[in-house]
Structures are given as C-alpha cells and as structure tokens.
Design goal:
Keywords: Lyase, Metal-binding, Zinc. The protein is of the alpha/beta class. A 5-stranded mixed sheet has the order 2-1-3-4-5. Helix 3 links the parallel strand 1 and strand 2. The chain is globular.
C-alpha cells in the first residue's frame, strides 16, 4: 500500500472514532476556533504539539519552523503571531524546542549547508553569544542540550521585543510567554523560562502606545 493512502485510511478511522464518541463533534469543531495557546515549535516530525501535550484539535494554534525560531524578519511567523495575539487573543505563547534538534546541532558545526545557512545563522548568533559558557561544558551532549535550552530562552526574548506582544501587554495584560524543551528521550517537557505579561522590560526594545 502506498504510504500516503495509509494516511487517508487512518483519517477515516479517526473521524469515525470521533463521531462514535460525539455525533456533533465536527459540527462543533467547524463553528469557530478559540485556542488558549500559540505554539511556536520545531518542524521536526517527532514533536507534534497536540500529541505531546495530549491536546484536542482547536486547543492550540500552531506555527512550526526549523529549530523553533522567532526571527524579526520572518513575515510568516509575524503574521501568525499577530493573528494569534490580536484576533484569537491567545492567553499563552509557548516556544517549544527539543533535545537532539538537527537545526541546533548543524549550527554548532562549521559545515556549509548551502541555503539553510541563512536560517542557521540565527541559531549561530545564540551560539556565539553564549560560546564561552558553552565551551566550559566538557560533555558534548550536555553542551548540545544547553544550547537547545539557550535557543528557546532567546526566542522568548525575541517575542518580548515585538510590538505585537508589547501592545497586547499594554492593552489586555496578556499573553504570558513560556519557553519549553521536549525531552525526546523520555517524552517529558522541561520548563526553561516563563515571562508573565508585562514583566519583561528593556530601555531599547520599548514602545509607547
């Protein structure tokens, strides 16, 4: 059987199971979305937001890219962020990285990867910023894990620097920001950083509304 046909058959089975539990499930699902969370995660196929949090469709608004980055020139990410914050009015934004992230691992090398170098540079900036502290970690795997965590923390800072988030903080005291790392070896999520709405300040990245 072709692999893609297996996915279609699995979809039919999933839809049937949902209807057996609740005949109005898809009627209710199609009405509107009102997620509490925006999830900015890695595109890695092993880290599906709903699966690892045991969430239902409609609970989480999701954006994924290589190494769960918040880049100030990424119009795709910024469009998702603006819609989630200003239209859906999410209460929480989660940046979730994961150990053994291929993007972070690639950024730690001096190898030329072609086009993706442009994207990896954003991770390399985090690596360079924390290079001395990371080099003090002798174990290579622990050093890798630490950069994964540092990268997540940096992306939370990048969110706090946006006018989208700061305007929402000024007007409705939301959303809260959370940096997580999924431990792919054990299936559990580690909290790295939490910033409550309006808690973060900067004399440089500050806007008056």
């Amino acid at each position: 059987m072709n692999e893609y046909k297996k996915l279609l058959l699995s979809n039919k089975a999933w839809a049937s199971e949902r209807l057996e539990l609740d005949k109005s499930y898809f009627d209710n699902l199609s009405k509107d979305q009102n997620p509490l969370f925006l999830w900015i995660g890695c595109a890695d196929s092993r880290v599906p937001a709903e699966e690892i949090t045991h969430a239902d469709p409609g609970d989480i608004f999701v954006h994924r890219n290589v190494a769960n980055m918040v880049v100030h020139t990424d119009i795709n990410l910024l469009s998702v962020l603006q819609y989630a914050v200003e239209v859906l009015e999410v209460k929480h934004i989660i940046v979730c990285g994961h150990y053994n992230c291929g993007g972070v691992k690639a950024a730690m090398t001096n190898q030329d990867f072609g086009l993706i170098n442009k994207w990896l540079r954003n991770i390399k900036e985090v690596y360079e910023k924390n290079f001395e502290a990371l080099q003090n970690i002798e174990d290579e795997q622990l050093r890798f894990n630490k950069l994964v965590e540092m990268n997540v923390a940096e992306q939370i800072q990048n969110l706090a620097k946006t006018t989208i988030v700061q305007k929402a903080w000024a007007t409705r005291k939301l959303p809260h920001l959370h940096g997580w790392v999924f431990d792919i070896h054990h299936g559990e999520i580690k909290e790295v950083i939490n910033i409550n709405a309006g808690e973060w300040t900067s004399p440089v990245f500050h806007y008056d509304f």
